[in-house]
Amino acid sequence: MTALRLEDPAATEAFGAKLAAHVKVGDVIALTGTLGAGKTSLARGLLAALGLVGEAPSPSFAIVQPYAPPEVRLPVLHVDLYRIDDPDEIVELALDDARYDSVLIVEWPERAGPDYWPDALRLDLTIEPDGTRGLTAGVPEGWTRRWPI
Hints:
The protein is α/β, with parallel strands linked by helices and about 150 residues long. It has four helices and seven strands.
């Protein structure tokens, strides 16, 4: 596990931008943390660094927000599973099929169950007592040559 401290929302977005230089099609980036911890900020930084102009909307209501070239350098699905109550609902989203040609950024991946996406880069964001954000990374084998960022 790797732990980092992110001073403010701009630092969280900047980390996402650094991460964008290392992602490739087939990757799953699983973002966990309480509401307001910075999951969407990190995703927005990544998407901006991949070329997205303007602010990416939170996919909370759409559940899956797709991005494709030329809007971004790589196809990306920004997924928010917060409103998913049953892990069986995830099968209907066809996210495993999407991995063949996209990067998945998944907020609230724990809603899929503990063993879903075992090869995901797991980034856990916490709100620290001083208002900064803590980021702890679970780095799977497929990321060891690309980590640390």
